Amino acid sequence: MTLIDQYLAAVAAQLPTDKREDITAELRDALMERVEAREAELDRSMTETETEALLREFGHPLSVAARYRGGPDHLIGPELFPYWWFAVKAALLILVVVVVIGAVASTIVGERSVVQAFAGIWDDLLNGGAMIVGIAAVAGFIIERQPNKPSFMTEWRVKDLELFRHWSLNSDGLVQAVGGGSADPDKAPVRAARRKRGVVAEALWCVAAWAVFLLWWVGGFELGGLNPQQLLAAFGSMVPGVNYSEVLSGLVQPLYWPVIAYGLARMALELARAAAPGAVRPAALGDLILALVGAGFLYWIWTQSALAPVARIDNLDGLIDRTVDLFQGRFDLAHILVLILIFNALEIVGRVFGALRRLGDGRA
Predict the structure, then answer these.
(1) Quick one: which of 1, 94, 184, 285 could link to 5 by a disulfide (CB 3.0–4.6 Å)?
(2) Other beta carbons less than 10 A from residue 352's beta carbon
(3) Across the chain, which distance is largest between two alpha carbons, in Å?
(4) Nearest-angstrom CA–CA distance, 103 and 205
């Protein structure tokens, strides 16, 4: 086998099988033309060294084959990269905040000294950051190779861009830079009230937040050296009265896979919302379903979980009594749970009504 045959075999191995013969024949013709021209200049046959130099000029087999493959030849292309980088920055920012909060929490509950907790910040950031960038790279690789570009790249609307500006972490002085009106701080509340949310940007931030949470939930990194069970146990040991560390840490096992499934579903919904920001009603239906699932989680915790005996409220009078006790400074676990119940219930009700409203009028 000649050098040219070896070279073409290396190229052919990288080509689609259905096009391999035609492309290889085309390349052979191009190479033989160059060989003939070079030999005419030399007035003799080329040596093996000269042939190898010519093949190097022609290009490495991997590079030559790449010219004939369909699809992109980059991990994340220039059009997708700005969206990808925005999401990665959001996730890394959330990771920094969460890790720092975890370090502070671990010192408060006495699991670590201040020096130990903050020394662990770098390990948590390194582990979590590497996983975030890796997962984002895989997601970008998949999106880049879809036959059709997501509509957020081709059908974006100006009114959806506001959140990109405010969450870019680089918005100082933008009003003066673009000449878009007064930068009078006294008018800021008025302008803020008129802003519309950027659907794509908000969806990407939500995906980033859930990605960070799930990485911690599955053990990708620890908050101040604490995994979910340890964190709940530590807080349970701080509650005045009975030590509830075992009860709280016991919630992780039955909720482990449901929380993962819910988080992945929420991320999928937000990615779909970002890909098709105009599909308001399908996204609203997804919001409604997930809100009802969240209500199911809440109902299970308060009626069936290991916390049920502590959290149980039989009637409205019981709820009122515990709420009044909270305002009077009673902060045992039962009363703290009532506060959590109230906030979660209100949040779920708000999501349900918001989803119903969007289903009705089709507006984001």
Answers:
(1) 1
(2) 16
(3) 106
(4) 23
